[in-house]
Amino acid sequence: MEFSITVGKDADAEVPLGRVPGTTRTRWFLYGISNLGVVVVLALASWYLLADPVTSPWAFYPLPFNAALFWAILFIVFIGFNTEFWGIDRIPQPLRGFVIICATTVFAVVVTWVLANVLGHFYPSFAASRDGGLGYFASALFVLFGFATWVMVVLNWMHWPWTKLGMKQPLIGLCEIASMMVPTLALYLVFGLPPVSESATTSLMSVDTVLGWFYSIVVAVILTGQTLDNWPWRLFGGGGRTALASLIGNVLFGTVIYFLMVPLSKVLVGSAAVHELGGAINQFPAQIGVCWAFWMIFWANAFGNKPTGFGAAANLTVRTLVTFTLGIATFLGYYYFAAEHILHEPMVAGALYGNALGFIDWLVLWTLFYVVGFQSFGLGPLRSIEPSRG
């Protein structure tokens, strides 16, 4: 199953993503690389304008830029995956893509401003005036838990139980958004808010551990639901059994990923940086995880989630290895080169620069904008279809 959703009835949406009728020559790699080029160019151009510490005329970096970015991605999850672009899919391209960008921008900016300036007026933990933009971060941390809950009900639960009840869109998506608000808010109040609150005296874990652990659960959701075609949860028979299995399984699997990623992080950043980071090293599973998540999302949507023509075990294994390898390469390239020399971000520790939860998530957002929202507008001639396999 792909993270993308086929929407609309225009020429680009008549066939599945990455295919054109009547062609047999495989051009999926060229199509994917072209998408990558467009996304990177759009991400860099908008970064230099809005966030770059050197070139941007505004002082949005790192906050409130990152806060608005997180809310923007969550909004795409709401309208694109929970409600499957209901209503928006009737708009022809490229106007549809511009509508998605405009609606997302308005939502992200308004929510970020209201939480920091209205809610923050009554609850200082969310105030825009907190040092280092911590008030923006405190409210945006809610989105971390939403990435797990609202994505899981689509990728792993397959919109259960709402489809079983005979519902249609947009009611399915609205019910998902409303029903998952309660557990998402509960997770945030228990795990997320205490370590960043001005008034809380104790917390279950540090904010670095919260980031690392829960983002590892997000990685488990995307990996199993998208890259592995909902394996192994689909083996439980669908419906409520699959939903329960994925809920428990993703928490356990994500925890395993976290404990594997911590020592891997230490190897990748080096002993000097580990010493300088101290407890902050516990958030680096999220830093690696966002790089891997970007490639899992991009690989499914722009590269057709290849391979698809081998046996199931081979398909899933190769996808996992390819996306993970690309994720590690992206992590190293970002922290040791791009963040300093291309994005002009400040040093973190040792030879490390930047924060992958910023720019790499910016790449994720532009992937959702262009590849999903615009349906790779302008790249239609590169779409191809492979001969069917027996």
TrEMBL record:
Coiled coil: none
Record's keyword terms, sorted: Membrane, Transmembrane, Transmembrane helix
Domain of life, per lineage: Bacteria
Membrane-spanning residues: 28-51, 63-83, 95-116, 136-158, 170-191, 211-231, 243-264, 284-304, 316-337, 357-379
This protein's name: AAT family amino acid transporter
Taxonomic source organism: Arthrobacter cavernae
